[in-house]
Write a structure and sequence with these properties.
By secondary structure, the protein is an alpha+beta fold. It has 6 helices and 13 strands.
Length: about 325
């Protein structure tokens, strides 16, 4: 059975997205920390967007990040000396929101000694310097940690229907993007809704580590306090750089799997050529009925002109 026709609403959304992507790189911007499409994933995005019934809505080719957690809303803390007191606490689990900041983002391997603008490690001599706060004094429930992370590719694709989503999701799972899935099933009740497929994984590639914490000086300015030595941070960056290569292979494998999945869909349709929509079937049945009736009428006419009459031989010798 062929996929359902692409809804007009989907095509209008796709046209708008493609128009935005067509803007020159120097002028293009989006809501990501980088603000533009990663060149490392541009070929895959172009391939997906060239397919009927598919359009990418957001993407990340993979990245190394350093993020300073934000603060949640102040929570009232009462004691005997004050009617109420507000104590800062960390933002949501993972530290997002509450004034958190991206301190460093890279979508390609980096040399941490040359390409990291903020120092996130300390030398062995620094550990003897009293200006570095002791970790023992940090309250985990209130601390704002600095998190180092490697995150593999993530891609969101809007599809015209659930049948369009099927080969995309199949390709993602086969390419080891195990946490992929359809984010919305509104299409089951609303044919105009467009299912969104998230292609992602964490197993085996993602990594995260706390490398410091944030304090504030008397003026309320953030101060970054590293907890790792230089060689320890170097090891983290080396491990993340190695994951870029594995991530690149997975992206290429996903594109190959998607081609194969789409070819399988085409094969299924060719093997089911007898399928036809109700209108076509009605027309075919009508023509077949008329043809059968016509053949029957001809058969009856031939029978009427021969049966019941004796054969006469005009050239008999008698």
């Amino acid at each position: 059975m062929p996929p359902p026709p692409v809804p007009l609403t989907f095509q209008q959304k796709k046209d708008q997205i493609l128009a935005e992507l067509a803007v020159p790189t120097a002028e293009y911007t989006d809501a990501s920390p980088k603000g533009s499409v990663d060149e490392e994933i541009r070929d895959l995005i172009d391939f997906v967007n060239a397919l009927e019934g598919y359009v990418t809505t957001s993407s990340c080719a993979g990245r190394i990040t350093v993020y300073a957690e934000g603060q949640k809303k102040a929570r009232a803390h009462k004691d005997s000396s004050s009617p109420s007191r507000s104590r800062p606490e960390t933002a949501t689990t993972g530290g997002k929101g509450g004034g958190g900041r991206w301190l460093f983002v890279s979508h390609e391997p980096v040399d941490s000694r040359q390409n990291v603008p903020i120092r996130f490690s300390r030398s062995s001599q620094d550990s003897k310097n009293p200006r570095h706060e002791s970790l023992a004094a940090v309250e985990p429930q209130n601390a704002r940690f600095i998190r180092f992370a490697f995150e593999p590719m993530i891609l969101h694709v809007m599809t015209a229907s659930l049948r369009h989503a099927r080969p995309l999701l199949s390709a993602a799972i086969n390419a080891r993007f195990r946490e992929s899935g359809v984010q919305s099933l509104k299409n089951l009740d609303d044919t105009e809704a467009c299912p969104m497929v998230a292609i992602r994984t964490t197993g085996g590639l993602s990594m995260q580590s706390i490398i410091g914490f944030v304090t504030s000086d008397e003026q309320g300015v953030d101060q970054y306090q590293p907890i790792m030595l230089d060689d320890q941070l170097q090891l983290l960056f080396a491990a993340a750089n190695a994951r870029f290569e594995a991530n690149k292979e997975m992206i290429a494998n996903f594109q190959t799997c998607l081609r194969s999945a789409l070819e399988i869909e085409v094969t299924r349709r060719l093997e089911n050529d007898n399928w036809e929509d109700p209108v076509t079937r009605k027309i075919r049945k009508r023509h077949e009925g008329l043809a059968t009736r016509k053949d029957k009428n001809h058969s009856n006419l031939d029978s009427d002109t021969t049966d019941g009459f004796p054969e006469i031989n005009l050239f008999s010798s008698d």
